Give the backbone structure.
Amino acid sequence: MSVSEEYSLRGIIRELLHYKSAVIGLLILLFLVGISAYAIFFTPYSKSGQLWNEREIWLKYPKNAAPEWVNYFSSKKLPRTIFLGHRKEGHSEEKLRNGAITELIYTDKFYFDADDFPDDIIIFVNATYARSRPKMEVYWTKPSGDTLYLGKYTLRNGTNRIYLTNNVRLEGDLAEHVIKKIGKKPNFVISLNRALFISYNGKLETEKGRYSARLKFTLRNEGDKVSYETVIYGKVYGIAGTDDQRRPLDLGLIWGAPIALAFGITASLIISFVQLIIAAISGYYGGRVDSIIQRLTEVYMILPFLPILIMISLLYGMSLWKLLLMVILLSIFGTSVKTYRVWTMQIKSYPYVEAALAYGAGNMRIILLYIVPRLLPPIVPTLVLSIPSYVFLEAALSFLGLSDPNVVSWGRIVEEAFSGGALYKGYYHWVLMPSIMLVLTAISFALIGLALDRIVNPRLREM
Amino acid sequence: MIKMILLEVKDLKKYFPIKKGIFGGKTYYVRAVDEISFDLDKGEAVSLVGESGSGKTTLGKTILRLYRPTGGKLIFDGKDITNLAPKKLKWYRRETGLVQQDPFGAMPPHFTIYRILEEPLIVNKIGDKEERREIVHKILEEVQLPPEEFTFKYPHMLSGGQLQRIAIARAIILEPKLVIADEPVSMLDASVRVDVLNIFRRIQEKYKMSTVYITHDLSTTRYFSEKIFIMYAGHVVERASTQEILNHPSHPYTQALFEAIPNPDPKNRFKLREVPPGEPPSLINPPKGCRFRPRCPIATEKCEREPPEVEISPNHFVKCWYPQ
């Protein structure tokens, strides 16, 4: 690469917009920067990592749900999550008083038309009572009019979680009921969630139509209160689905974006600039300084980068930013130092450097103001192209389990998918979505970088 | 009028080491400048003439202390600068200026003309922003380039002649006492050479700067200088006032140089030009004694000894056993 062509950075950016590929790359980048800004603005990264590790707050999301757009590509429609409760559509209330005993009857009607069965049903009940515990009875009416009794539950003070689908006895009762309705024992297992939604035609199909769920609360004291929410967990959620801890992946991907960009861009920028300055010093001073820097570079070049990083991470359990620092420290004497050194030596021989010496400019001034700015345009494409490699590095380290447990990164999501057996169990979205983000990042910077390369190296244009 | 000596050069030597073999081995030296002595008066313009490889540029750069002399003495304004460390040379940088041969390479391409001219002022901490602006504008007018038109241009937008005028402006912006112009017009179109030289000469006379004009072109020296030094293979072989050298070239080499100048006279059309045979000697292993000896038409055995520098007429020095 020659450094004789002259470019100003502003001119490069103007010319960049003439390349369609670069514009596409810039648009993708804009998108990534947009979601990063969104993520940083709404959840600072220290908080997002904490939230991601919390179990309780994701309880109302479905488990291992596929992205919603899966329904567009499949003839079998997967159910969405349905929320029932106060102030929801189809909700009605009835209150019966009998002395001190109050009976509250809440009926929720909802329309169900998916081809697959929902996963789970949990009723979240908040109860406050004075002396005797309130009771809750659950009735389930199918579109056909068949009403199922789903048991009686005694409530405790505070939040009760009623896992309807975990009730083994109820499951057996309902299975019997379904077999009776069908008339013969079907060749599939009738689990509770299936029993609630199955049509009685003998096939494993859902019954579509208006369902109603009735909760009957019996409160024994004056002033006792209950409120509830029923969650019928679906099998699709959002644009990225959820993982086995019910965490919505779209949030994880958004929270991972600023981390990926920050890590990649910081690493690439700092490493490139430090390498540039080291190389400029090496090439400019020559002699012993040059020899030391070059020998050091050669030693660095044979150091096994990844094993060292793994070793240090295992020993010290590093945070993301310490990891970044390690990556930078292990890269500043990279191969590029040799390339940049040669360019420096070429520029150093220009008469204007000698002229600067003649009017008294100091060595550091010459390096920083006369040589480094001339090296910048040709390294900009390299710099941009190396950003995704550092994003990938972070993902790879996360995948190897060296990630910061307090940070949500794309690599960490892939790692969780891997250890959660996502591919084995068929939760492809779990691996696919973070991978798509990684690939998008790579494509974005690659398109911009290649266009930059063509601008700065015009000889490549026609080839 | 008593002339004041600005620069004294005494037995100046500059050898460049060449290492042979990867395990140290024997080190050879290119003797680019070998025992040169002369004085330069204040305000005096001197031409340094010689062919390629004769060490003129090395001499210039050694005087400017861009190279560290191997031997001898450099005394500037009464101060010995021969072996001063680069950090202690800052004042000397202010007192000297350099105009280079290649105007295109002499400008940092990422700076504007204004910045290029401001740099020497910034580096030497002269004036504040406003004062520096005035100085830059004044100097641009001095080299006949309208400031408002040129300050914001980049070097690649200028022609060679304009760039060389910027280079001259940069060399004199610190108002140095000594300017070394290393073949300032040899890369320019013939049409602008005279302009550039005239501008340089006028400024040199106006500011009374001592000037060393390095060239291989004898024909431009007479416009420019009061004295001519002829260099051959690291030695100054003849030095005298311009008029004296033009009228009485005394060293056989000088005479050969004059022979080589084409003279557009019809009478000369049948004249066969006598050019000394051979090439300038290798400076790694120069011939013993007089370095011109292998090519000299009048050389004898005596020339195998180092020739003395003789003053054949007042202020006319010739380094030869047989000055003509």
Observations:
- The longest helix of chain B spans residues 190-207.
- Chain B touches chain A at residues 61, 64, 66, 89-90, 93-94, 96-98, 100-102, 105-110, 119-120, 123-124, 154, 156, 167, 170, 174 (CB under 8 Å).
- Chain B has two domains: 39-64+85-225, 237-263+272-324.
